[in-house]
## 1
Amino acid sequence: MTTLPDRRLLLVHAHPDDESIGTGSTMAHYAAAGAHVTLVTCTLGEEGEIHVPALAQLAAAEADQLGGFRIGELTAACAALGVSDHRFLGGAGRYRDSGMMGMPTNGHPRAFWAADLDEAAGQLLDVIREVRPQVMVTYDPNGFYGHPDHIQAHRVAMRAHELATAEGVAPAKVYWTALPRTVLEAGMSHLTASSDNPFDGVDSIDDLPFGTPDDQIAARIDGTGQHAAKEAAMRAHATQIPADSWLYAIAGNFGAEFMGVEYFTLAVGERGPGGGPNGWEDDLFAGIDVTAPQWAVRLPEQPGHDLADPASAGDGPQRAAATAGLR
Ligand SMILES: [Zn+2]
């Protein structure tokens, strides 16, 4: 018998490191609180830039081993976040990092950008059937900032939600990651004086692909108690985030708030009770009766997608997560 905690959260991300940068505090917050946190990563991030000179030869244009290396980085990041249930969509390596929009890598035979939507959504649906999350988190239709794999992750997640709705197993709420305009403005003005300003040359936040009016934000998750876990998870992605990145510098200046607080818009479902001038929820499960019979995990798992069975799981962390996390 598989028993899972009452509260179950599913996050769908594009590349290793997105989970830590975008939702690391939320993941650590819920994992620490005893919720079941499932991370589905859609690609291995093969096309990422490499910020560790000694590992430069792993690059896509050379040995093309970065994806495999990043499995180890993601495993370490998940350990830092306290998350043991991690899978790659369709198994590790099924979908490849598509690279930036318009690059030839968009046309790779395994590029996630070119994935068959229903096939990929079906793979995510298998996870939804198994774990029965009440809440799913992914990106907005622009993938937060326009990367093709982020846009595709959004499409796959939303299509999987449609398919799950037809089966009566859909998460009650779907959230999209977001950054309130007031928080973005505060960050930008703070960084103006910095020598390492990631917004250098940006005159107005209207020129940025993200920044959501505060009244459209639905939830503010305060994971400030977990900011150290989030930073440790980010540091686990050393090939992607330089040790002297502005991300760490700004964290030092803003303190726990920058690392620890994450925001979301609500795309599907009913908003629960909240507070403050905008009525922001402080819990992604707000308003959901997680112990209602409809959320009982149906047992046993259906044959064919028993990811808790090591024999049917993929390699590496997926296999380890399946054995450690679900039994
Ligand atoms: Zn990404």
Note: DSSP finds nine helices and seven strands in the chain.
## 2
Amino acid sequence: MAGATAKESHRMSPVMAASSVRRVAAVLVFAALSMRSSASIADNPIVQTNYTADPAPLVYDGRLYVYTSHDEDVTVNDFFTMNDWRLYSTLDMVNWTDHGSPASYRTFSWGTGDAWAPHGVARNGKFYLYVPINNSTGSKIGVAVANSPAGPFTDALGRALVSTGSGNIDPNVFIDDDGQAYLYWGNPNLYYVRLNADMISFPGSPTQTNLTTAGFGARSNSDRATAYEEGPWFYKRGSLYYLVYPADGTPEKISYTTSSGPLGPWMYRGDIMAKQTGAGGSFTNHPGVIDYKGHSYFFYHNAALPGGGGYKRSVCLEEFSYNADGTIPTIRMTTTGPVALGTLNPFQQVEAETIAFSSGLKTEVCSEGGIDVTSISNGDYIKVKGVDFGTGAVSFDARVASAASGGNIELRLDSQTGTLVGTCSVAATGGAQTWMTKSCTVTGATGVHDLFLKFTGGSGASLFNVNWWKFTPRDAPDGGAPDGGASGTGGAAGTSGRGGAGGAVGTSGRGGAGGASAGSSGSSGGGRGGAGGQAPGAGGNAGSAGGASGGAGAGTGAGGETGGRGGASATGGTTGIAGTGGASAAGRGGSNGGAGSGVAGTSGAAGGAGTGGGGDPAGCGCQTSPGGGLRSPLLMVFLLVVAASRRRRLRAAPAPARQR
Ligand SMILES: [Ca+2]
């Protein structure tokens, strides 16, 4: 944030004249045009669908979240115009999923605006969002609480947590090893309190830290006693306490100080990031420092997006390594950001709002839950980094809605003009939130690539919206590879043996394929779905056809996020038991799973009903008949052929629409 003096004087500025509104509007149009023409495929700034600032990272349950403030596209009064906070998350530090707005100043009935730098922390299964907001008597700190990182947050107190004095901005909370939580904040003074265990109250009154040049550095001018400005980021690493802060007025640099205790005495350690000057620089900066998956990251903001400026900032990210003595090296801004910590699985549902970089797009609340990508016009694109197509993809599904005449999603590898592996045509769906799943064939996508969803169409400003997408693999990988499951290979058919056993349960992956094929007199293989994890198991791909005297194929999908898909089908053997539907321990039974639609064996039982774990009802034992005598060898062969054909169709079929 900027210096309080400048901010407070701006608060009393007269309402902006209409001519200024028009000027801002003109600038915005120019900015939008500039954005359209940008060919940048850099990964910083990490969010392109909004102007964001004041990053506050949080690691929770294996995922890295970052709360940000939000500079509105239309700046009012030539000053910070900030109404709500935003939340993004990642698993790989390059692809960021938009979680929308967890709260706004309107979350607090006593607030009147100025949703400035937030800080979200997790404790006791709850999430606390500490925020500065303004009202008619100056800046105050509020605290909101929620049961999930993305909210919805509600005002925990119905009044301000900190309301004494002035300059109550940039709250930052750290919970020490002994469980004591500290709240630091302030511009131009640095205050702290020890929070009670409830995280929403504190004993006594705020304490003002004694700012000395030995602790916080000398200022390059004399308007304050030390270089400290605002935005404290307080944390502990090993036995050393760190306080990182914007310093030395505007433009701000980032400096830091350390101590052997949470309350000082502080020893100034120097600068981390230099002042930003020239194009792409903003006069403020704001640090967020965190470790994730064994790496150390430094969040900050600049003005590098098209149309950016001091009131239109963007959050960026760099990786760094601590020196052996615990000091922090100087960190430079880059347009590339950190190296990816992993690849992205395109064979599970990927939210369209999971983005490494994009151009021309916005996001909005989706009627199907979560967020969708909107404001799509001809030439816009989404880059998703490090997509692992494995041995190949055969088709692409996109969940889309269009109130207009639609357009196309070109699937390109490695650049906006890279190899075209498929084109998905999107027609009108009857409404901007009327969702349909569109599919297209894919060829030539193997291995790891950056995926570009390049949008084309007419001249409209909003051709269509996208909720999510996914690819279908060339063939269901055995035993979860490359999706992380333990491997298990379907057994080869045996002339008198058993069908292969299904792949072992993938921890977060795709289920193993069922037995490759039935033995002529063997029993079938069964495939198990992935057990839980982020990626739902795809369920038993299909129980293989039962052998001449074999048992049934069974597909079992253990519960993942959306549950495993049940075994698609299973065919009973001539004397075998009919197919059993895929079970689903949790989540969805699979809208085309669920039932084993087993064809009855000559003396077998009917196909069993699948067990739906929610969502779609359990499938029926359809296309079945009670066991009856199909004793002709020719009929038996016919059944096996039908079953094989059915499996192929089911594998190639688009995934069912997943409702939330
Ligand atoms: Ca979505």
Note: Residues 412 and 427 are 20 Å apart (CA to CA).
